[in-house]
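Notebook, bench 3.
Goal today: get a predicted structure for Ribonuclease H from Acinetobacter pragensis so we can plan the truncation constructs. The sequence was checked against the plasmid map this morning, with no discrepancies at the termini. Length recorded as 455 residues. Pasting the sequence as submitted so the record is complete.
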Amino acid sequence: MSQTITLYVDGACKGNPGLGGWGAYIITESEEHKICGGEAETTNNRMELTAAIEGVLFCPADAKLVIWTDSNYVKQGITEWIHGWKKKNWKDVKNPDLWKKLDAVCQGREIEWNWIKGHAGHAGNEMADQLANQGAEEMLMQLKNGKADDAKKKAESDWLLNDPFGLDLTDSDEDLPDEEALDDDAMAAAEVNALVEDVTEPAVQPSAAAIHPKIVITSATLDIQGPRQLILDTETTGFYFQDSDRIIEIGAIEMINRKLTGSSIHIYINPQKPVGESENIHGISDDFLKDKPLYAEIADTLFDYLKGAEIIAHNATFDMNFLNMEFKRAGFPALSEVCEVTDTLAMAKSKHPGQKNSLDALVRRYEIPQRDRTFHGALLDAEILSDVYLAMTGGQVSFDIDALTHADGAQAEMARQAVQIDLPVILPNAEELTEHENWVKQFEEKHGTPCLFAK
C-alpha cells in the first residue's frame, strides 16, 4: 500500500512584484523534509504556485498527497478554474506557465487539496511560511554576494522563465505572460541592482500594466504627507454576498489631509455568473464583463493599494462584506483586518435622523453639483461621496497647510479663508419635528425599547 504524505506549501513576496520565496514542509510516515527557494523579481501568486510544484515534484509518484495551502488562488485554481482555462486554451490566464506545469506534475497522482487560514498559528502552515521567507532571504544573499552579475550575463528577454537562478521553473519560454516579460539584459540588471541596493524600503505601488492591463491606477498629482483615506464604492451582481453574488466593479480615490491627491484605482471584474437584473442599476452587461479579469487575478494589486488606509464608503457594511468575501476567496486576509472603516451612511443617519440619507439625497441636501448618474458607477459614486464626506465633516478645509505643495498655495489660502466662515445651522420645521416624534413612537412600539433619539 502506498504511503500518505502531507505537504504544507506557501509563498512570500517582499513587494508585489519584488523579491520572493517559496517553501514546502513535507511530512512522510517516517521523516520530515524542508525545501525552499527564491526569485529576485516575482509575485506572491507565482511563489505560491512554485511552492506547490516543487512540493509535488519532491514526493514519490505513487504516494497519496494531502496538500495544505493558505492560497485560495492555488487551491481553487487547480481544483476548479483550471478546467475552464483549458477549454479556452489559457486565454487571458495569468501565470499560464506555472499553471501548466502544476497541472502536468499532478497528472496520474492521487492528491487531496485543502485550504488553511494563513498566519493563524497552525504549525505546518507557519513552518511553510518560514521556509518561504528563508527562500527569499537566501536569494537576497546570493544577489548581495555577486551572483546577480552572473545571472545578468545569462539573462535574455524572457529571463524569468529561463531560470537564471537555477529553479528550473519551465522547460520552454513560449508560455511567458507578456506583462511579466523583460525586454533586455539592461532592464534585468537595473531591476536586480535596485533590489540589492535597498530591499528594505517600503514597496512602491506597482504599475498597473505590469500586473494586469485591465487595472487602471492613476498616480497622485499632489505631494501630500499624512494618513491615507480611500473613498470607495463597489458594484455587484446582487445584494447578498452569502448567496454567491460577486463584485463586478471597484473604484477608490485617495484623500490625504482632506485633499484629493489625484490617485485612484478602478477595476472591472468578471464575476463568472450573470449580472441579472442588477444591470438595471449599474448598466454593466455580461458581454462587457466577459473579457475582464477574475478577482483572483487582481486581488494582490488591489490589496496592496487598499491595505493600511481608512476606507470611507456609503453603507460600508455592504461593500466590506463583499470585499472581505472576495479577498478570503483569493487567499488574503479580510480587508477589514488591515483597514479602518468609516460608514458615511451611519454618519448621515446620526446627523439627519428620520430623513432620507441615500447618496442622492445627501447630494441634494448639501447642494453638491449634480453629475450624470443615469447608472451607478463605482468610480463616479466614489467621487460624489468624497464631496458628501467633506461637506458632512465641515467642508474641504486643509488642517495641515504645511503639508501642501508650493503649487497648491493658492488653494491653501482659500481654505484658510473658508475656516473663518460661520457654517449655517439648519433647524427643523414644525412638520419635520412632528414626523420625527411619530417615528420615535413607532420605533418604541415596534422594538419595545425607547429610541436613542427620544427626549
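Residues 185 and 199 are 21 Å apart (CA to CA). The chain has three domains: 4-162, 208-419, 425-455.
Flagging this for group meeting.
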